[in-house]
Amino acid sequence: MRFTKAIPNMVTLGNLYCGFLSIGFAANGGFKNAAILILIGMMLDSMDGRLARMLNADSTLGKELDSLADIVTFGVAPSFLVYYTYFYQFGMLGFVVAGLFPLFGAYRLARFNISSGKTSMNYFVGVPITAAGGILAILTLFGHIIPQIITTVVFTGMCFLMVSKIRIPSLKEVPLPKYGTIVTIFLGCVLFIIVKGTHGQFPYLIYIATPLYIAYLAYRFVKGKKDKE
């Protein structure tokens, strides 16, 4: 029983570890690996809260751990990724600018944590750091075809949108984890490309994470239909 209660926290720690690995890959020039690990972190982030409710394992520790994991995987890791792929050209200025992303993200998370009980469950105030970090990861993954100026504009826009008062639909009533469908389809396409001709260029974790997550989505979809019936 105690192990079951610990499962959501283990998933959250897996998210945090993906952020750590992403930073390591980015520092060693493995930019595709780094971007994929951030996306895998998104999958894990969409699972921990649902698993906690399913297993009746909600806890204050889990909520605090989730915020700490998010600031690393979707704040620090994307900023390092953008720095090593583009902002490094501007020297110390680029390093300083890249560091703004986790600062805005941390402020956004802190504001969310103290106001989550007061705001509607139908929307987020400001862009969630998970979505912002995932967008930067995808832009970096396709950096060879996306002009760098677009990455710069999006990077700047995400910083301010995270701390803005704009209401973003949460889609929490949809019987699938947040970001689940988009991330799963994207990673499924990446997995297909790997198998077809670029085997070995991405972390082997993707071979385990994507099928497991697809199975999890299928379970949630079937369970949601049964609950409605």
In terms of structural class, how would the helical and strand content be classed?
A: mainly alpha
CATH topology: Four Helix Bundle (Hemerythrin (Met), subunit A)
Q: State the end-to-end CA separation.
A: 29 Å
Question: What fraction strand?
Answer: under 5%
Under CATH at level 1, the class stands as Mainly Alpha
- The total number of structural domains is 1
Helix share, percent: over 70%
pLDDT < 50 runs, ≥5 residues:
173-177
| Topology, number of strands | 2
Radius of gyration: 17 Å
Q: What are the SSEs and their pairings?
A:
Elements: H1 2-27, H2 31-54, H3 60-85, H4 91-98, H5 100-115, E1 123-125, H6 129-141, H7 148-162, E2 167-169, H8 180-197, H9 205-228
Antiparallel strand pairs: 1-2
What does this protein structure show overall?
- It is found in: Endomembrane system.
- With 229 residues, the protein is mainly α.
- The chain has a single domain (2-180), classed as Up-down Bundle (Four Helix Bundle (Hemerythrin (Met), subunit A)), CATH 1.20.120.
- 74% of the residues lie in helices and 3% in strands.
- It has 9 helices and 2 strands, in the order H-H-H-H-H-E-H-H-E-H-H.
- The chain has helices spanning 2-27, 31-54, 60-85, 91-98, 100-115, 129-141, 148-162, 180-197, 205-228, and strands spanning 123-125, 167-169.
- The protein is globular, with a radius of gyration of 17 Å.
